[in-house]
């Protein structure tokens, strides 16, 4: 993935926090499973132009928060707003159309299609062209320009004609990101985007996320604290479903309660 890395701004310094407008927010978010409270009193502000990390030990409630924000789970209490609109009771598909998109799983890409075809198919979703897909090849070809733009954005343009199945693990995850970007998200939710990657791929994906966040907001669950330190403008730490600390990495990583609960473990 060296080529991709060269094309993307890999400036080591963390860009100043954009301090952009709040695009996704929740207040008093809570989710009970029977008598067990998995998420309690969670307030979050996710801003345009920023990468925001959600971290915490196993079982802290990170995935549940993602499921609540994307509406795959209904909150027991609390409110969620997306670009000022109350989405607390909105369906997952409508929320996705409004611009809150969670990265696809690798299984959602088509292994026997080329890299370019995968992005073209993803591009049809927002355009509402899905029903025409099998009828009109020319309609698909019109999408090539935008698909190539997206592939260039993530550094996969040199792989356009390869089958997705033949990509390395790291590049499959990058393709997954490209297909997610095809939906033109305003807020991108990434669940451990570097999981299972080697050092070089981690650097490449971090550079892509940094670049992507300049014109969007990114909320990511990430266990790799070096990545969080290098990439994320804001960090929210969850423990047993509640917010333990929030702020920039420097503030959070020196918080005694965080060090005790999280940083002092082998994650640090
Ligand atoms: N559908 C469910 N029914 C009952 N309990 C659940 C359900 N989903 C999650 N939980 C519980 O809620 C708590 C938070 O789980 P969650 O998966 O959100 O944590 P996490 O921070 O994402 O953990 P990890 O880092 O291990 O993925 C855990 O104790 C989990 O067992």
TrEMBL record:
Keywords: ATP-binding, Nucleotide-binding, Transport. Signal peptide: none annotated. One of its GO terms (molecular function) is ATP hydrolysis activity. GO terms for cellular component: plasma membrane. InterPro entries: AAA+_ATPase, ABC_AA/LPS_Transport, ABC_transporter-like_ATP-bd, P-loop_NTPase. Residues 24-265 form the ABC transporter domain. The keyword rRNA processing does not apply. PANTHER family: ABC TRANSPORTER ATP-BINDING PROTEIN (PTHR45772:SF3), CONSERVED COMPONENT OF ABC TRANSPORTER FOR NATURAL AMINO ACIDS-RELATED (PTHR45772). This is ABC transporter ATP-binding protein. The lineage of its organism: Bacteria, Pseudomonadati, Pseudomonadota, Alphaproteobacteria, Hyphomicrobiales.
């Amino acid at each position: 993935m060296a080529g991709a890395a060269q094309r993307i701004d890999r400036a080591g310094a963390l860009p100043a926090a954009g301090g952009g407008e709040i695009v996704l927010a929740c207040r008093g978010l809570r989710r009970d499973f029977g008598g067990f409270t998995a998420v309690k009193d969670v307030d979050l502000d996710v801003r345009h132009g920023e990468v925001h990390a959600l971290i915490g030990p196993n079982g802290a409630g990170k995935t549940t928060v993602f499921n609540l924000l994307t509406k795959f789970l209904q909150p027991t209490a609390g409110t969620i707003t997306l670009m000022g609109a109350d989405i607390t009771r909105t369906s997952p598909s409508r929320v996705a159309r409004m611009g809150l998109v969670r990265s696809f799983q690798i299984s959602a890409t088509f292994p026997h299609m080329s890299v370019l075809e995968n992005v073209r198919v993803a591009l049809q979703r927002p355009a509402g062209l899905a029903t025409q897909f099998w009828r009109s090849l020319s309609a698909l070809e019109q999408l090539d320009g935008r698909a190539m733009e997206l592939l260039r954005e993530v550094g996969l343009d040199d792989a356009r004609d390869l089958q997705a199945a033949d990509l390395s693990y790291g590049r499959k995850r990058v393709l997954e990101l490209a297909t997610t970007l095809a939906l033109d998200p305003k807020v991108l939710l990434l669940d451990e985007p570097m999981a299972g990657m080697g050092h070089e791929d981690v650097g490449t994906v971090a550079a892509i996320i940094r670049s992507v966040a300049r014109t969007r907001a990114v909320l990511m669950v990430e266990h790799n604290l070096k990545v969080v330190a290098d990439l994320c403008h804001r960090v929210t730490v969850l423990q047993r479903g509640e917010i333990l600390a929030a702020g920039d990495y420097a503030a959070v990583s020196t918080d005694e309660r965080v060090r005790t609960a999280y940083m002092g473990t082998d994650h640090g």
